[in-house]
Write a structure and sequence with these properties.
- It is a single chain.
- This protein is mainly α and about 220 residues long.
- The chain contains nine helices and no strands.
- The longest helix is centred in the middle third of the chain and has 31 residues.
């Protein structure tokens, strides 16, 4: 003899943590869009003069507002996903560590946005607290964020808890490209062509976010 169970008694997986995935989608779209919006700057002069030409470009604020939105959404998504039992089991300490990096990167994005207010000081070669913070964000925080994306892509894809193996190259190449390009931009132009490649990190975020949104269970 079989019995029918009421739909109210059938156990369902918690869905509160699913809120993190739409944030990853939004963050990835904003990160991808921020690249083309970024001012190109002048190729003339030394690195200080090139940076100054970007800071005085009106596009600086628009590009970095979009970038700030992207970093904030990624941070919100990773913080929310701390409640996903599959991710906690599959990623271990990498998940909370990544959330911390993402939150720090949001603060860094705010610093990056307002670096344009220091254009004159940078042109004169002066060092202010904001200029120092800006350089730290550019050469330390942003590269770590890129490495974080690469690590999440590999670990999450191999264990199929965040994306899958098909999209691993997007996060790995995009994250590494962003890390190398941002870590060296203040010193050499050699790796500047990697910035467009970094946009793949945004596509990875969109891919894993959509997969999480439509995942069953």
């Amino acid at each position: 003899m079989t019995t029918l169970r009421s739909s109210s008694t059938i156990p369902t997986a918690p869905r509160v943590h699913r809120a993190g995935y739409p944030f990853l989608v939004a963050g990835g779209l904003a990160f991808f869009a921020g690249g083309p919006l970024h001012p190109q700057g002048s190729d003339e002069g030394d690195k200080t003069e090139q940076l100054h030409s970007m800071l005085v470009d009106p596009a600086w604020y628009a590009a970095h507002l979009v970038g700030l939105l992207g970093f904030a959404c990624v941070a919100a998504g990773l913080v929310a996903l701390q409640r996903d039992p599959a991710l906690r089991e599959g990623l271990g300490r990498l998940l909370p560590a990544s959330a911390v990096v993402a939150v720090v990167a949001v603060v860094g994005a705010v610093v990056h946005l307002f670096a344009a207010t220091q254009a004159e000081e940078i042109e004169d070669g002066s060092t202010t607290p904001l200029v120092a913070a800006f350089m730290g964000v550019e050469t330390i925080v942003n590269p770590v964020w890129g490495l974080m994306v690469a690590a999440l892509a590999v670990a999450g894809g191999r264990r199929r808890v965040l994306g899958n193996r098909i999209v691993v190259p997007l996060g790995l190449l995009g994250g590494l490209a962003f890390a190398v390009a941002t870590a060296t931009i203040a010193f050499v132009d050699t790796f500047d062509p990697l910035f467009p490649v970094a946009g793949l990190a945004g596509l990875w975020l969109v891919a894993v976010g959509l997969r999480g949104v439509f995942r069953r269970g």
